Amino acid sequence: MRPGCRRSAGFTLIDTLVTVALICIISAITIPAIAGVLGSLRVGMGARDVERELQTARMLAVSTNRPIRVRFNCPTDGQYRLVELIGSPESPDSFDNDRARCGDVAFPYPAPDNEPLTRPNLDGPVRRLPPGVSFALAQTIEFWPNGTARVDSGGGVPWPKIPAAGATVSVTKGAVTRSIEVSSLGKIRMR
Q: Which range of residues forms the domain containing residue 52?
């Protein structure tokens, strides 16, 4: 090597531009795929949370000898709440409706007392689905102390047993949907 000349080390402008272009192309391909996977994970988490809430309601109904309902889109879309039936299945209290029971103003969680003579004592907190996830299909489901399940058919008391095909609660985000089936015997299964 001649004195005064030295070899330069490093990247040229072209090397840097090619590297940046490759990073942009790879990002453009993988970001939508990652977003789809995240959406699917959120739907799965939401469905598992709803399934656990239904299982909790059934176990609570059997262990406390009280009918327990799970209300969906309560008080707003994407929210749900486990509530104790006020009154009896044959004669529910007039306050036992979606508008009154969904919010936790009139019926707070936790209950102000644990006195067994005052109802309700078993209401749960208002729960929320993950962001962007909603209920595609849901009816209020009621579990009886014998473990069986009933569904709000829009009229008549007590509510009728769930039909042989079962009742379905569907959780969705975009094209991804997960369903939870509840049978008349109270069996809960995620599909």
A: 13-190
Q: In what order do the strands lie in the sheet with 134-137?
A: 134-137, 167-173, 176-182, 188-190
- The predicted structure's pLDDT at residue 184: 94
Q: How far apart are CA 49 and CA 135, in angstroms?
A: 13
Check residue 37 and give its pLDDT: 80
Which residues have C-beta within 8 Å of that of residue 45, sequence separation ≥ 6?
130
4 domain-assigned: no
For 51, half-sphere exposure in the C-beta direction (CA atoms, 13 angstrom radius) is 17
Q: Is residue 34 part of a domain?
A: yes
The amino acid at 14: I
Domain tally for the chain?
1
Residues lower than pLDDT 70 in the chain: 1-8, 116-117
The answer to whether the bond into 110 is cis (omega within 30° of 0) is yes
Q: What is the pLDDT of residue 71?
A: 93
Q: What is the CATH number of the domain that holds 109?
A: 3.55.40.10
pLDDT over 90 for what percent of the chain?
A: 53
Compute, in degrees rounded to 10, the torsion defined by CA atoms 80, 85, 90, 93.
-100
Residue 91 lies in a domain: yes
Residue 8 within a domain? no
What contacts 62, CB < 8 A, 6 or more positions away?
143, 145, 146, 147
